[in-house]
Every structure is written in structure tokens, then in C-alpha cells.
């Protein structure tokens, strides 16, 4: 599915925070998870994830740390902070509210068109 | 090459690309590299070849430029330090310049030229406006002068006052802290050893040096005139007379009637050029006091000193002025009194020359030029920014906020503006020597490096740059990304567009400048060619004096005769005045039958019996002086202006008297009002008295020549001179030349305006060109379709020119009335002036319009000639 770019931009924050809520993770895996979760429907330019991660870090929603991975390579891991967890709740509320509004609207529309 | 090596090679190449983005830190690159390696591994496990896996992984990651831009917005928002940011703007700005060479270079060049010329004119204007204000005590120094009522009920200023006045004022008012009097004696012969020099001599006193901040290079400024026989000399005079020796303590001899020896006690440093006073030699007034007192000069009967007083800080001069009448009443006869006034030193230059208006005039021009350059910049910048819709849209998509875009775009604009301004300032330093050369006017830009001017210059540049950047930025940041991506946003073609206002203003300023130049030259030309009621052509002025004593008079008479014997000489006359250089002496007179009325203050000139004939001045009544009637030496010839003040219908039966005296002049003739000074001035009343042919009061010989054989005549005159004075070279000029010199200031200001106008047109044309390139690019497709549908190139051109022409016509609505107001005001300063007609405005409008048509047309024509198909296919 071809998501509009602005929708991707807006949703990147809850998506990333949501994945990090499950435990610390690194950029490549975060992208893979998003792709898997969306069944391949969300296609990002991979490089665009990192500026978002860096922004979340500057905002204090995530922290990062360089670790040695299994094969000896250095890898940067991100973890969610308390502030980040609070932000997830806020994001959840916003998206649910939007979801409700759209659902109502569409059910209304389908009723009108059928009635 | 094995697989791992291949992967490493791809990654190295990719890393190098990324490193070019200076804002990406090593950590970020390492993180991305880790990502890339995982992608490659995954793609390999999926069965891709190593080569494909690398290429695909790099592609998936996105271009280095995009990543860098996104990172920059994060860095900018959260980094405390702005320096890396400025660095990145620098790079982006440079990249923009590279990408849009044409517009960017027009933009910077226009600004550079505008700033350079505007700065030069502005500094010059400032120097004129702040004439005499470099003295520390400027605000407390006042010029003591008088005004007299004229018979017409106007006021006439009299600069000189009586020698004891300043002293009495100081005695009467404790708030006066110092007094400084000047007597300007003109060129005087100075001797040192065997050598003779001619130097300008000024008499003054210690208080003058205390009051004014004239720089003293050597000597104790507070005590230079402790000894009455002391002089202060300029460093140039010191160099001329004493060479490299230390002049302090050395003596010079001043050739008064009896030579007097003075000791040099001080050497003046360089006086700023915007000073009303400049000195060669300042002689202690005290040294002449006794002799002048004996001659009656140092009393209340002779008024010839320029008096300045300094009040204690913050004292109100009004308090003094109110009490002046009582003071003067004690000492001065009623007819001489006038009304004493105090004038702030800052007004002195304008009082003397009436030329401070040119400071403001040039100031406005400088400002106008800067405005044009600035509008130009803002406009081109806006046009260019609209071309960047897509870039904005992409960046909005990636979550760049409105704020980021505002900062990015404004920053870029400010940066570009700063480049142009700094280049402009640099250029003004390069042009300075030429400017000085061209206009013969000293000035310096060194003050720009002082903290205050530097700070205001920098904040000015940044402030204006921000303003130029903000307008397009705000519009851009409000754009909706999806509209832009779908191409549904385009430039508004109608309605309110700030760009149009800026272009209109540019046109208006250009038209105002062009018409101002035309009007100035019309007026100058008018003054140079006007009929002045005498014939100024081919009259030689030889500067010479007969000298005292019978022997000298005979030598003088012989010289006159030898001049008259030269075949090319028509007539010879002696006088102390020539048109363009009239005597500065005045005399008070009254009509015999109106002795109760205030005395008239008339210019007083000594001439011989050949003067009016030589100058070709017409008599309206009576007769010329007659050498054979000895009694004519108590008689006078006046002009029509003088007759008007007297209110006489005819000179018959009237006599002119000195106030409070039984003596006076009989008037034997009236001449037509001829212009003896600049046509800026009305013809003032003047009285000519006859002193015979050989009087020592004359300081020039006027020789009317035949136009033909001028060089031969001049050679003969020079050889005649050698018989008169073998020791000095002949010193001569011509009356018409003398007159032209009177308009030197007007011509200088005119040519400055002319240069500024060229610059203004050039900058405006650059701006029109830049806008045209933008318009053409915007409307290329529309034009191509029209062309396909059968429109001719001419029709297309008309469509493009129409909008510009409408804006131009709108600009005339501002330009013409504003210019009319300013130039009419300027012309008011001339007694003899042109009337403002439509000619200058039509011509100015024509020049500006045709120039912009040609520029716009040739550019558009070039673009329109391209094959429409190629334009249409390009999208």
C-alpha cells in the first residue's frame, strides 16, 4: 500500500516508541519490525529512520548506547525513557481519537450511501 | 576479488559520499554503516548477488543529501551551538549559488554595487551634515553675529562684529567660559631667512584653541599664545618653511606695513575636511591689538571680527540673547547695532554656504540606492524561493516543521545578503580613491572600523538580510506539501503581490533619480548660459596691485598703457571686484530725504571709469564716471536693486548720506541689475565708487580681449607683465571661468547624482532581468502553448511586457509628485531658476522605461525563440 509521506512522518514517532517499549533495540531491527508488522505495506527509505531516532533522543524520549554485538561489530542500541513511555500514552490517545472520528465518519457515510 | 572485498569497496565508496555531508558526525555514519551491513547480509541470504545486495541496500538507505538535510533539522532544533549550523548554511548557500548561478550572481552583484555606491555617498552626505561637529564642545559653542532689517522688511545676516564685543559679553555673562575671535587676513607674505612665502593668515587668540578641538601636533595647546608675538602654523606650512627641522621656537617674519617677527609655538595637525576653518598660519591677535587700537579698529567703530563664544555646559543661549540689546546699547551707535544673535556651531557651515541641503540630498539618494538594491535582493530572493517548492515539499514530508524551514531559508538569505553587503563594503574601499579623485572631495571610510559604526553596520546587514528572507519564507512554510507535490500550487498571477510593490518602488526611485539629474543639469546649464546683463566672455582678470606712492602709481599706469597697446586688447579697467568675485565690503547709507529710516547696508565696490564699459554693463539712467572730472571721486554709480531700496524714481535731486554724518555720495548713474554673483542669489544693491585709475585700492585689472588670436594676445600680455613685476609670475583667470567656479558645488552634486543614477538604473535593470528570467521560466509552458496555437513572438512579447509597463506607470504616480516636491524645493534656493516642466519627467520616464523594455525584451525574445515542442516535452 502506498502511504502518503506525511502520514509516515506523523506515525513514525508512535511506531518507534512502541517497538522500543518491548525492549532496547537498534535501528536496523526497528525498521525490519515495522516492515513485518505492516506486512510490507510501510516502505521507508531506511536512512530516514535515523534522524527520527536522533530527534526522539534529543527530545529525551529515548536514550542510546553503543554496544558490542555478537559478531564483534559496534552497534547503537536505543531504549525508551520514562518520558518516552508517557509520550506513547499521549500518542495512543491521539491516534485512537482520530481513529474514532474517522470510523464514525465512514460508518455515517456508508449508512447514507446505503439508505 | 572475493565477496567481502567487494562489499568493503561498496561501503567505502558509500562512506566517502556520506562524509561530504559535513554535518554528519562519525557516530551517525557508523550507525548507518552498521545498518547497511545488516541489509546487505539479509539481501544476500535472500539470494541476491553481492553486487545487487550492495546496490539495493544503499538505495534503500536513501541519498546522503536527504539524510544530511534531515539530520540538520534535528541538529538545528536541539543543538545549543549555532556554529555548525552556520557552516552548513554556508555550504547550502554556496550550493544554491552554484545551482542558480544566473539569479544568484545578479542578486549578489546588484547588492554589491548598490551597497558600495550608497555607502560612499552616504558617508559623504554624513560628513556634510555633521560639518564642524567634530569639536568636543560643539554643543556649547555659538557664533555671535547680528541681523539687520532690510528696507523690504526682510532680515540680513551680518557675520562680523566689533572687536571688543566678545570680551564685553564674557564680562557681562558668567556662563560664557571662553571666547574665540578670528580675523581672516588672506594671503600675506611671510619671510624666513632669505625665503619668501605667501600663506593664508588668520588672527586669533588662546580662547579659540581652548574652545575648538583643532588637533595640535607640537606645542602646548593650552599655552601657545602666552607670548603676544607667537604664531601657530599648520604642518604643511611647517614642512614648506622649515623642512624636517623642528619648527618650535623658530621665528618667521610677517610682512605687515612694518615687518613683525613671531615665534612658532605650535604646529597644527590635520584638521578634518568637514571643518569650516582651516589654517595656514594663526597669528596671536594680541600682537596687533595696540596698533589696531591706535588705528581705531579695535573699538566700537569697526566691525570686522568673527566672534565665537563657549557657554558652560548645558547653559541656555536664549538667556544671553535676551539681554544683548542692553549690552549693545551701551557701546554701539543705533544705526550700527542690528540685533545680536547666537548661532549653534553646527549651523555655521550652512549659514555660510547654504550647502548643507546637499548633505541631505545625497543622503536621500544614498538611501534610495540602498533601497533599490535591497528591493532587488528581496525580490530576486523571493522569486528564487518560489522555485524551490518541491524542495520544501519533500522536507515537509519528512517532518521538517514550519519553523525549521523559516530558519533554513531566512538563514540562507541572510547569508547571501551578508556576502553581497561585505563585498559592497569592500568595493567601496576600492572605489574610495576614485571617488575622491572624481569629486575632489576628501573623505575617509576608516571610521567604519570603530566599534559603534561597525556594530550598527553588522546589525544592519543581519537585520536587512532577515527582513529580505522572511517574506518568501513565511509564504513557503505555509504551503501544503501535498499541493506542491501535485503541482497545484503556482505563483499568484493577479491580485496583491508584494513583489509588484517592490518593483514599482524600484521604478519610482529610478525615475526620481533620473529626473533629479536632468533637472539639476537643466538648472546648472541655465545658470551658465543665462543673460547676466553683462558680457562675461573674453575678459581676463589679472591679480595685481599698484602699491603705495607716486612711483608705484606711475609703474602701474605704464603697465595699463602697455596692456592697452596690445593689439588684441579692447579695453582695460582696474577695480577691486569682478563679476563672480565681488568685494565683501559693505557700507551703510541713507537717502538724504529719509534720514529717519533704518540705514541701508550695501555692497561697496571701487572701480575706475572704464569698468562698466569693459564689462559691457548698461546704464539705465545718468552717466558713467569721467576721468576728466576730479569731483567724480566723491560720486557713485548704483544698480537698479539699490534704486528700488531707496524708492527713488530718478537719481536727480537726491543724495546718499552716511548715517549720523553730513557726508555722503552723489549718485550720478544707475546701471542695469547685472549678476555679479551666482545666479542662486538675487541681485543685491551695490554702490560703485570711483578712485581714479591707479589707486592702491584696486587689486585686479580687467582686460577685455578679442576672441581672435587669443594665444598671441596672452603672450604679449605676459611680456607686458614682466615689465611691471619681474619677480612674480603673472596670476590671472577669466571672468567666465570665475563664474563657472561658482557652480562647482552644484556640478559636483550633479555629477554625484549622475553616477548614483547610473548605478540605480544598473541595479534596477539587473533586478528586472532577474525577475524576467523567473517570469519566463514560470510561463514558458503557457507561452509555448500559445505559440503552438498560432501566436506570434511579438504578441507573446507584448504579453510579457504588459505587466512590467503597468507597474512602471504606477511608479510614475509616486515618482513624479515626490520628485516635483523635492526639486521645486531645491530650485527655490535659486533666485534665477528654471520652471519645472514635463520635459524632465517625460525624458526620465522614457529612459527608464525603454531601458527596461530593451532588457526584458531581449531576454524574453531569446527564450521565446526556442521551439515550443521542446518546452512542452520537457515536462
Automatic annotation (TrEMBL), chain A:
<dbReference type="InterPro" id="IPR036390">
    <property type="entry name" value="WH_DNA-bd_sf"/>
</dbReference>
<dbReference type="InterPro" id="IPR005149">
    <property type="entry name" value="Tscrpt_reg_PadR_N"/>
</dbReference>
<dbReference type="Pfam" id="PF03551">
    <property type="entry name" value="PadR"/>
</dbReference>
<dbReference type="InterPro" id="IPR052509">
    <property type="entry name" value="Metal_resp_DNA-bind_regulator"/>
</dbReference>
<feature type="domain" description="Transcription regulator PadR N-terminal">
    <location>
        <begin position="16"/>
        <end position="89"/>
    </location>
</feature>
<protein>
    <submittedName>
        <fullName>PadR family transcriptional regulator</fullName>
    </submittedName>
</protein>
<dbReference type="InterPro" id="IPR036388">
    <property type="entry name" value="WH-like_DNA-bd_sf"/>
</dbReference>
Amino acid at each position: 500500500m502506498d502511504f502518503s509521506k506525511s502520514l509516515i512522518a506523523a506515525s513514525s514517532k508512535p511506531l518507534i516508541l512502541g517497538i522500543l517499549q518491548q525492549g532496547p533495540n537498534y535501528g536496523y531491527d526497528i525498521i525490519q519490525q515495522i516492515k513485518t508488522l505492516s506486512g510490507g505495506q510501510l516502505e521507508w527509505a531506511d536512512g530516514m529512520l535515523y534522524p527520527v531516532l536522533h530527534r526522539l533522543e534529543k527530545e529525551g524520549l529515548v536514550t542510546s548506547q553503543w554496544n558490542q554485538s555478537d559478531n564483534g561489530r559496534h552497534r547503537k542500541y536505543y531504549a525508551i525513557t520514562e518520558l518516552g513511555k508517557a509520550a506513547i500514552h499521549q500518542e495512543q490517545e491521539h491516534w485512537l481519537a482520530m481513529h474514532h472520528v474517522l470510523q464514525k465518519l465512514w460508518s455515517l457515510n456508508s449508512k447514507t450511501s446505503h439508505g | 576479488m572475493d565477496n567481502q572485498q567487494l562489499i568493503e569497496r561498496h561501503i567505502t565508496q558509500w562512506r566517502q559520499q556520506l562524509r561530504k555531508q559535513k554535518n554528519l558526525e562519525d557516530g551517525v555514519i557508523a550507525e548507518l554503516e552498521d545498518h547497511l551491513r545488516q541489509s546487505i547480509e539479509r539481501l544476500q541470504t535472500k539470494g541476491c548477488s553481492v553486487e545487487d545486495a550492495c546496490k539495493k541496500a544503499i538505495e534503500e538507505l536513501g541519498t546522503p543529501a536527504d539524510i544530511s538535510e534531515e539530520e540538520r533539522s534535528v541538529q538545528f532544533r536541539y543543538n545549543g551551538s549555532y556554529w555548525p549550523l552556520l557552516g552548513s548554511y554556508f555550504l547550502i548557500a554556496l550550493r544554491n549559488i552554484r545551482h542558480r548561478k544566473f539569479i544568484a550572481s545578479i542578486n549578489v552583484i546588484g547588492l554589491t554595487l548598490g551597497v558600495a555606491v550608497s555607502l560612499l555617498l552616504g558617508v559623504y552626505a554624513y560628513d556634510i551634515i555633521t560639518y564642524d561637529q567634530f569639536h568636543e564642545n560643539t554643543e556649547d559653542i555659538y557664533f555671535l553675529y547680528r541681523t539687520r532689517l532690510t528696507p523690504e522688511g526682510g532680515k540680513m545676516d551680518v557675520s562680523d562684529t566689533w572687536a571688543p564685543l566678545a570680551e564685553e559679553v564674557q564680562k557681562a555673562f558668567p556662563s560664557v567660559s571662553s571666547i574665540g575671535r578670528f580675523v581672516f587676513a588672506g594671503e600675506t607674505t611671510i619671510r624666513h631667512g632669505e625665503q619668501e612665502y605667501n600663506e593664508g593668515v588668520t588672527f586669533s587668540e588662546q580662547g579659540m584653541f581652548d574652545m575648538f578641538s583643532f588637533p595640535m601636533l607640537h606645542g602646548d595647546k593650552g599655552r601657545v599664545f602666552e607670548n603676544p608675538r607667537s604664531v601657530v602654523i599648520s604642518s604643511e606650512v611647517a614642512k614648506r618653511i622649515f623642512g624636517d627641522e623642528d619648527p618650535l621656537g623658530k621665528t618667521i617674519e610677517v610682512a605687515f606695513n612694518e615687518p613683525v617677527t613671531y615665534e612658532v609655538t605650535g604646529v597644527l595637525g590635520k584638521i578634518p575636511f568637514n571643518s569650516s576653518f582651516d589654517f595656514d598660519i594663526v597669528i596671536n591677535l594680541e600682537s596687533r591689538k595696540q596698533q589696531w587700537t591706535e588705528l581705531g579698529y579695535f573699538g566700537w567703530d569697526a566691525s570686522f571680527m568673527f566672534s565665537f563664544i563657549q557657554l558652560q555646559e548645558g547653559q541656555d543661549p536664549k538667556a544671553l540673547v535676551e539681554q544683548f540689546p542692553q549690552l549693545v546699547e551701551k557701546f554701539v551707535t543705533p544705526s550700527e547695532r542690528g540685533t545680536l544673535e547666537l548661532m549653534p556651531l553646527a549651523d555655521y557651515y550652512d549659514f555660510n554656504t547654504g550647502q548643507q541641503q546637499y548633505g541631505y540630498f545625497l543622503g536621500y539618494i544614498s538611501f534610495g540606492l540602498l533601497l533599490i538594491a535591497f528591493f532587488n535582493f528581496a525580490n530576486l530572493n523571493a522569486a528564487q524561493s518560489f522555485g524551490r517548492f518541491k524542495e520544501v515539499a519533500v522536507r515537509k514530508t519528512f517532518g521538517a516543521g514550519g519553523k525549521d524551514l523559516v530558519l533554513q531559508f531566512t538563514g540562507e538569505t541572510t547569508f547571501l545578503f551578508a556576502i553581497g553587503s561585505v563585498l559592497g563594503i569592500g568595493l567601496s574601499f576600492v572605489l574610495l580613491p576614485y571617488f575622491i579623485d572624481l569629486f575632489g572631495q576628501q573623505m575617509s571610510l576608516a571610521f567604519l572600523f570603530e566599534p559603534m559604526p561597525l556594530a550598527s553596520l553588522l546589525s544592519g546587514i543581519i537585520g536587512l538580510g532577515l527582513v529580505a528572507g522572511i517574506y518568501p519564507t513565511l509564504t513557503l512554510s505555509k504551503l501544503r506539501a501535498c499541493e506542491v507535490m501535485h503541482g497545484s500550487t503556482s505563483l499568484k498571477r493577479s491580485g496583491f503581490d508584494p513583489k509588484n510593490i517592490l518593483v514599482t518602488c524600484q521604478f519610482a526611485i529610478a525615475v526620481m533619480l533620473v529626473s533629479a539629474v536632468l533637472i539639476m543639469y537643466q538648472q546648472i546649464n541655465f545658470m551658465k548660459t543665462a543673460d547676466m546683463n553683462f558680457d562675461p566672455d573674453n575678459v581676463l582678470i589679472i591679480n595685481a596691485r599698484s602699491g603705495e606712492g607716486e612711483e608705484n602709481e606711475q609703474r602701474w599706469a605704464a603697465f595699463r598703457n602697455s596692456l592697452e597697446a596690445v593689439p588684441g586688447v579692447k579695453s582695460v579697467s582696474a577695480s577691486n571686484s569682478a563679476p563672480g568675485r565681488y568685494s565683501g565690503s559693505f557700507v551703510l547709507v541713507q537717502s538724504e530725504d529719509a534720514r529717519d529710516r533704518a540705514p541701508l547696508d550695501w555692497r561697496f565696490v571701487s572701480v575706475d571709469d572704464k569698468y562698466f564699459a569693459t564689462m559691457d554693463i548698461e546704464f539705465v539712467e545718468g552717466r558713467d564716471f569721467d576721468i576728466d572730472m576730479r569731483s567724480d571721486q566723491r560720486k557713485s554709480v548704483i544698480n537698479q536693486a539699490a534704486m528700488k531700496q531707496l524708492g527713488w524714481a530718478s537719481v536727480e535731486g537726491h543724495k546718499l548720506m552716511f548715517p549720523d554724518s553730513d557726508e555722503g555720495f552723489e549718485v550720478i548713474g544707475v546701471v542695469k541689475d547685472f549678476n555679479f554673483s551666482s545666479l542662486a542669489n538675487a541681485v543685491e544693491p551695490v554702490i560703485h565708487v570711483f578712485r581714479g585709475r591707479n589707486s592702491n585700492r584696486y587689486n585686479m585689472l580687467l582686460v577685455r580681449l578679442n576672441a581672435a588670436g587669443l594665444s598671441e594676445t596672452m603672450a604679449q600680455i605676459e611680456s607686458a607683465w614682466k615689465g611691471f613685476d619681474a619677480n612674480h609670475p603673472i596670476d590671472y583667470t577669466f571672468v567666465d571661468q570665475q563664474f563657472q567656479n561658482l557652480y562647482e558645488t552644484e556640478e559636483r552634486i550633479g555629477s554625484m547624482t549622475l553616477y548614483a543614477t547610473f548605478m540605480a538604473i544598473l541595479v534596477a535593470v539587473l533586478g528586472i532581468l532577474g525577475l524576467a528570467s523567473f517570469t519566463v521560466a514560470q510561463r514558458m509552458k503557457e507561452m509555448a502553448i500559445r505559440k503552438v496555437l498560432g501566436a506570434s513572438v511579438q504578441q507573446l512579447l507584448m504579453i510579457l511586457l504588459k505587466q512590467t509597463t503597468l507597474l512602471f506607470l504606477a511608479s510614475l504616480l509616486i515618482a513624479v509628485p515626490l520628485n516635483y516636491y523635492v526639486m521645486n524645493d531645491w530650485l527655490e534656493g535659486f533666485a534665477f531658476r528654471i520652471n519645472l516642466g514635463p520635459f524632465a519627467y517625460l525624458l526620465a520616464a522614457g529612459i527608464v522605461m525603454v531601458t527596461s523594455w530593451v532588457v526584458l525584451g531581449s531576454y524574453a525574445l531569446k527564450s521565446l525563440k526556442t521551439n515550443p515542442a521542446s518546452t512542452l516535452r520537457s515536462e
